[in-house]
Amino acid sequence: MTPAIVPYMKTFLTVLDFVGTFVFALSGAVAAVRRELDLFGVLVLSFVAASTGGIVRDVLIGAIPPATLVDWRYLAISVSAGLLTFYFLPLINRVQSPVQLFDAAGLALFAVTGAQKALAYGLDAPMAALLGMLTGIGGGMARDVLLTQVPTVLRAELYAVAALAGASIVVMGSLLDMPSATMTLAGALACLALRLGSIYRGWHLPKASPAAPENEDRRGDSR
Q: Which of 81, 69, 72 is nearest to 31 (CA)?
């Protein structure tokens, strides 16, 4: 049974979900066009990028069937974003680094709405924060895998960490009985700020440093 959610909050989260769907769909479509996929491929990438995180979240919390598969508006938004990108990419490219910017916005919106929905379905605070993070990173990971790229979340960038931070703010607000809408916006802004800081300021996690090959070490010792 679907948990009861305050009507205005349900509307607020739905709007954020639609906006997140649109910007994530744009990120998938822009990446597909740059890889010279055909129209069908662009539409597939736009839908996958926009929907994967939400589908995984809904399956895990028991919201079956997932909202993306029963509400035609999600598909319509994804297709619209794909068509817009396919035919009007020069307009979108006026924004610097459009894939990263759209991806950052989608990450922030999906992280907070994912956490809110997980809380509404009765998950404990830590699990709700993790589900929010998963909702945020799922679409970007699927997009990158289909384009045979190393997913952004696996690189030394603030991606999953940013999503987890935004989702955690939402969860903490719930625990402290603070206004849901206020904490949702605060979480989205925090996630967005961390992600943009990673893109434009170079903020990142420590990178793995592979050891030198054994044969090179021996050569050095012989010298």
A: 81
Say whether pLDDT at 212 is over 80: no
Q: Where are the alpha helices (DSSP H) in the chain?
A: 7-34, 39-61, 67-70, 72-92, 98-120, 125-146, 160-175, 180-201, 214-222
Domain-located, residue 133: yes
The answer to whether residue 181 is domain-embedded is yes
Q: What is the mean pLDDT of residues 117-135?
A: 91
Q: Judge whether 218 lies within some domain.
A: no
As for how many domains the chain has, the answer is: 1
Sign of CA dihedral 186, 135, 145, 74: negative
Q: What is the pLDDT of residues 147-194, one digit of tens each?
A: 988 887 887 578 889 999 999 999 999 999 898 888 989 999 999 999
1 lies in some domain: no
With contact defined as beta carbons under 8 Å apart, do 203 and 151 qualify? no
Range of the domain at 140: 7-204
Q: What predicted TM-score, i.e. pTM, was given to this entire model?
A: 0.79
**Beta carbons of 159 and 147 less than 8 angstroms apart:** no
Residue 48 has pLDDT above 80, yes or no: yes
For residue 19, give both structure tokens.
């906006």
CB 92 within 8 A of CB 26: yes
